[in-house]
Amino acid sequence: MSWSSISETLESLFSLERLGVKMGLEHTEKLLSTLGNPQRNLTLIHIAGTNGKGSTSAHIECVLRGLGKKVGLYTSPHLVRFNERIRVNGIPITNQEIESFLKKSWTNINEIKSTFFETTTAMALSHFNLKKVDIAIIETGLGGRLDSTNIINPLLTIITSVAMDHMEILGDTIEAISFEKAGIVKKGVPLITFEQNKTVMNVLNETATQKKAEMYIANSPQNIKASSSNTYFNLGETKYKTALLGRHQAQNASLAITALKVIEPGISNYSINDSFSQLRWAGRLEKLSPDIFYDVAHNLSGIKAMVNFFTELYPDKYLYGLFAIKGDKDLHLVIRTLMQSFKGLLVTSDKKGLLVPELKLSQILNKNGLSNQPVSSVKQGVYELKKLTKNNGIGIIFGTHYLAEEIYKEFDLLFDRALI
Q1: Percent above pLDDT 90 for the chain
Q2: How confident is the model at residue 44, as a pLDDT?
Q3: 86, 196 in Cβ contact below 8 A?
Q4: Residue 413: what pLDDT?
Q5: Is the pLDDT at 335 greater than 60, yes or no?
Q6: Quick one: pLDDT at residue 415?
Q7: pTM of the complete model
Q8: Structural domain boundaries of the chain?
Q9: Which of the listed residues 6, 307, 332, 354 has the most CB atoms within 10 Å of its CB?
Q10: What pLDDT does residue 211 have?
Q11: What is the per-residue pLDDT across 19-38, written as a single tens digit (0 to 9) for each?
């Protein structure tokens, strides 16, 4: 297969999405076999969870890099460019490296009928092997047990916050979802998590016992204080600070610290704090202007955490939202939170048609008693949001990763500023 441009190359890659989501490992195993099983040469950390995977990964990545290690990072979805999903020391895979992989593998990809995510997982592992990384952090796509990333044998596994999301694939109870996430736990491989829902902990405890995997419970952060530029917290007597905002980021950071101390027992708290203070992770309570933020929160627990941050930090200000969301999310779970939190809510969609159309979204919200104003574009939504926030308000654009490119354009921000 030959392509005349990177856009054509990526078009072919994204065309694999027509094959949908296949929960299972067979295709990924076959594709990796044709590549010489690069995953077997790598030292890996595997992360699953509903919320906080990316932020926890970013905390760990920045500290390991600060120690002088060459670190791979595989996350999804991307915000602006596909390349963001696969990074080495914060630098995304190049267009040429994407083309090289696909040219070499395209025949096998088609013969195996690999899906988009199966292909990108193989691409990431191949890239990290070629770059000879010291360690790579691999984030699951959906679930864990049957996620294509689960073909790896990691140094340790991490399970972040588990909540209700992707129920059509993972199950409609917290127990079923926990079981899928716990599927990444491997025999004798340490598991890192934090104290959460009792049902979740029961599943994780049972799985760890069955797999004879030592389970480390991260300490709950204390004295959490968030400003508009940092989050401060204590673990025991030790003070920490992360550049990511919100109480939930203190918990993600605590999880990362526990993992780091298992990997690098002699690591100093100074090294951790120094790296945390320089961390950048776009789309997570990201400040776009003095009064407007962007957050990719798209399920109930994520939106609640986002709202809690703003109500605590700005108790005397009104919250105004610009909201868009994918069609596979259960809107009924989030409507009450939105109703209680926002003085005004704008709803929109994206140019590519990946999200619920604004008029349909508006109609659903209205039927459930949530008044809102549909706007035809992100451009118009940002214009209206700026007007609303002049009235002692804070504006929040939220609900999806898929608006990022349009949002950054409206605020005249270069996305490269957000590379970790």
Answers
A1: 79
A2: 98
A3: no
A4: 81
A5: yes
A6: 59
A7: 0.89
A8: 6-276, 286-418
A9: 307
A10: 97
A11: 556 667 999 999 999 999 99
SS (H, E, C) the chain: CCCCCHHHHHHHHHHHHHHCCCCCCHHHHHHHHHCCCHHHHCCEEEEECCECHHHHHHHHHHHHHHCCCCEEEECCCCCCCHHHHEEECCEECCHHHHHHHHHHHHHHHHHHCCCHHHHHHHHHHHHHHHCCCCEEEEECCCCCCCCHHHHCCCCEEEECECCCCCHHHHCCCHHHHHHHHHHHCCCCCCEEEECCCHHHHHHHHHHHHHHCCCEEEECCCEEEEECCCCEEEEECCEEEEECCCCHHHHHHHHHHHHHHHHHCCCCCHHHHHHHHCCCCCCCCCEEEECCEEEECCCCHHHHHHHHHHHHHHCCCCEEEEEECCCCCCCCHHHHHHHHHHCCEEEECCCCCCCCCCHHHHHHHHHHCCCCCEECCCHHHHHHHHHHHHCCCEEEEEECCCCCHHHHHHHCCCCHHHHCC
Domain 6-276 identical in fold to domain 286-418: no
Residue 85 to residue 98: CA distance in whole angstroms: 11
**Tokens at residue 6, please?**
């990177």
Tell me phi and psi for residue 292, to 5 degrees: -130, 135
Quick one: tokens of 242?
Answer: 């992360």
Mean per-residue pLDDT of the chain: 92
**CATH for 6-276 (3.40.190.120, 3.40.50.300, 3.40.1190.10, 3.40.190.10):** 3.40.1190.10
Confidence class for position 327, pLDDT limits 50, 70, 90: confident
